[in-house]
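Request: Mind sharing a record?
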Amino acid sequence: MRAKYLSQGDRREPKEISEVLGSLIEKASGQIDVRQADLVRRWAEIAPPDWGNVSTPIGIADKVLLVEAESGTAASLLKYQIHQLLGAIRDAFGEDLVVSVKLRVSQ
């Protein structure tokens, strides 16, 4: 493998990646919120009835939930029910997981 060493600055000796991999993983995992995966997995259960049948959660970035609607018509109807979805998410996961929802139409 060519990328065997990782240098930290100009004056330090190179270190084997295996020596620093643990700290890199620890830093990255500190930013993961497992509730996001739980929301996606339990979507049909948590989302209001109109949402579960015509939409799919894509992911959460900066507390904004991206939801894909199956058609433009569905997205238009769901747009007026975003407050219901946010209420359901807050009931299931608390106030801090999602603060807004962005809809897009599947292609």
Notes: The first strand starts at residue 5 and ends at 6.
